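pinned: reference chain
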Amino acid sequence: MATPDFIRELRKSIGRQLLWLPGVTAVVFDDQGRVLLGQRADSGEWSVIGGIPEPGEQPAETAVREVFEETAVRAVAEEVVLIETMPPTHYPNGDVCQFMDVTLRCRAVGGEARVNDDESLAVGWFALDDLPEVNEYALSRIKRALEGAPTWFHGKGEEPEAGQP
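pinned: its structure tokens
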């Protein structure tokens, strides 16, 4: 994910110490029930689409913007499916960030899936029974977006999922 300018400016003051940030993940489905995935340029992994909101930007606006910027697909956000604090991420340059992820289920309304920036190596629509290898982060969000259940979050008396803090 490209580092937004406002974070570069913050890093000038705080150095490499932990930076707490919002993050937004978009799980986008088309009319055929396929899910939109991007192969990340930084890791080579296939994943759902996501990014960091600009200051003052609403999560749904971020989801729609990130989907278009990365894939050229026009989408609308339909519902919040998950809110979760992620473990800290340590980047190769020494920066440390921790994200509060808001995952939204989105519906494609136009555009043709293609690489639309330098954050992806490839993008495409995938049938749910024919997904490329994706990590647990992406898979759990796809599953939750399909459930149609109330928004998931760690609640009173609820244990975190395996591998989560």
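why pinned: The mean pLDDT is 92. The longest helix spans residues 59-71.
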